[in-house]
């Protein structure tokens, strides 16, 4: 894997949760995936049988990824063999997110969220 070396003096991460990754060093493949139901209700009610992802089309539809047909020419010129960073501060990493310090060959990330708002009927 070609690339430059990353030198970091200090990394401070307060929280890494929900299938997230703090990766220090090179990796061949990073693949993140997250699904979430975000329900906002006017009244605090929980029915007990909620949260079935298969009930919502957004979680099963194929992603509309268009093929890349353009010819891409790329040249790299590394003036220095390393990237020097003094300090990295991260408050939080969540929902299959990745903080990565290093080189990666392949990256694929996907997040699907269904937002639902349920309001009480207006009084007549």
Account of the protein in words:
It is a single chain. With 124 residues, this protein is mainly beta. It has one domain. It is 0% helix and 45% strand. It has strands spanning 5-13, 21-24, 27-41, 82-90, 98-101, 104-118. The protein is elongated and about 70 Å long.
Q: How many domains make up the coordinates? A: 1
What would the average pLDDT be, to the nearest integer?
87
- Principal-axis shape equals elongated
User: What class, by secondary structure content?
Assistant: mainly beta
Level of helix content? under 10%
Question: What's the total helix number?
Answer: 0
* Sheet with most strands: strand arrangement: 1-4
Pfam families: GerPE
Protein name: Spore gernimation protein
Organism: Mesobacillus campisalis
Short synopsis of the structure:
The chain is mostly beta strands and 124 residues long. The chain is built from no helices and six strands. It has strands at residues 5-13, 21-24, 27-41, 82-90, 98-101, 104-118.
Write the layout of secondary structure elements.
Layout: E1 5-13, E2 21-24, E3 27-41, E4 82-90, E5 98-101, E6 104-118
Parallel strand pairs: 1-4, 2-5, 3-6
């Amino acid at each position: 894997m070609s690339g430059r070396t990353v030198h970091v003096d200090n990394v401070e991460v307060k929280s890494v949760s929900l299938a997230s990754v703090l990766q220090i060093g090179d990796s061949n493949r990073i693949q993140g995936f997250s699904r979430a139901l975000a329900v906002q209700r006017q009244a605090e009610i929980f029915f007990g049988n909620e949260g079935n992802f298969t009930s919502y089309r957004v979680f099963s539809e194929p992603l509309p990824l268009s093929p890349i047909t353009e010819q891409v020419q790329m040249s790299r010129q590394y003036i220095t063999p390393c990237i020097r960073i003094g300090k990295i501060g991260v408050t939080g990493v969540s929902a299959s997110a990745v903080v990565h310090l290093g080189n990666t060959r392949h990256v694929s990330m996907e997040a699907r969220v269904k937002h639902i708002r349920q309001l009480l009927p207006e009084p007549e």
